[in-house]
Write a structure and sequence with these properties.
The protein is mainly alpha-helical. 74% of the residues lie in helices and 4% in strands. The protein contains 8 helices and 2 strands. It has a two-stranded antiparallel ribbon with strand order 1-2. It is globular. The protein starts with a helix and ends with a helix.
Amino acid sequence: MGNLGEALREELNCESAFTIGGIGISESVVVTWIIMAAVLVLSLLLTRKLKVEHPSRRQLLLEQAVTSLEGITEGILGSEGKQYAAYLASVLMYLGIANLIGIFGFKPPTKDMNVTAALALMSIILIEYAGIHRKGVKRWFKSFAEPIALIAPINVLELVIKPLSLCMRLFGNVLGAFVIMELIEYIVPVGVPIVFSMYFDIFDGLIQAYVFVFLTGLFMKEAME
């Protein structure tokens, strides 16, 4: 069990991959750059020679994939938040890839709490911006005193609770799945881990990406009401 504990600590520590001007660049940042570069190159390759008339099969499949992805987020936000669907679709795609990238030997960026905290902070900024944009500054301030002024401190406290819950939910589920897989591999090193890996490394990773985006979209919809 000592080796297992050491392996867990090694995997969960976010070490610096290299330094730039004395500033350490963590593994999670490097892997995020790799994901961004891969998506950018793939996007450039797939969007070459697009046609308005007589589109190719590749273009039709690409359009269907983009429409489906944006349809998921638009379904969460509703018609009022349609303009934010592209951002949430981008986050969904990033988290899906980040949670699955461990299959290829990389350390998932979502194992770093700094990454999940940054994503949660971006989400809460967008949530409050959507509320202000929809209601106006004056009505947005008044919403903290709804339905009665007595609960205004609780509503203000939610500004901290919401990003914290988003951060800890994503980080905790990714961490929990990793710990369970390590325990299974320690107890039954052959055969069984492959079956569980299909769930924890693939299915659960995609589910956690969707849950994060779903909750962000749900909070945005509430802020705009």
